[in-house]
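pasting for ref
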Amino acid sequence: MKYIPILYSTPMVKGILAGRKDRTRRVKGLEKINIAPEYWLYDGVDLNIGNQHWFEILDVDGKPSEKYTDIICPYGQVGDVLWVRESYLYCLEDEFLEGMNSRIVFKASIHNDWYLALREKSNHYKWKPSIHMPKSVCRIFLEIADIRAERLQDITSEDAIKEGIDSWVDERMKSKPVRYASYCDFDNPSDPALYTSCPINSFETLWQSINGKDSWEKNPWVWVISFKRIEKPLNFS
């Protein structure tokens, strides 16, 4: 078993904590495939040698050439554990607020009014980026259950929901439809573009908010990593 760090934004950490998110899509390790259109995914995944995926190279006329390139997922293989890096800060012991029981404060778990109260106590309280979170304060561990490679836009509605997108029931309408969040910035919070009835559209805006406006249209190959949350492993250090 290996332990591999993985970065998560605050909305996605909240999704994991709420039990809404049990998979993630990542492009790391597939850069060569994504910039070379002559590659396509050959039907072959062997978990016994490290989730190795074969990409077949096409001839100039678009026909299979019987030449392959193999890529192993950099996030590990089934049974490995991802330890989550998230935004956090250290709170000085003499500046604890009521209800706080740890010096480590995670952005995904603290109420905004708590944070404002901390800032009133001292201006040095600023959220530290997830990439700087040390291994020693990790609280979320995800055991890999499955890995596959597919095109980004091949995502299904079910998978989009399992990516942890936020949703709610629109009680104003008689049919009470489910609405899904839009992860783009708008000046008007009542703008109808802030939500959608399609989970895939919601995930598209989430992907764009992380990877850039044109990232969805590029339709890259991505790793689809399914996981389950577990307790901190005894030998994790």
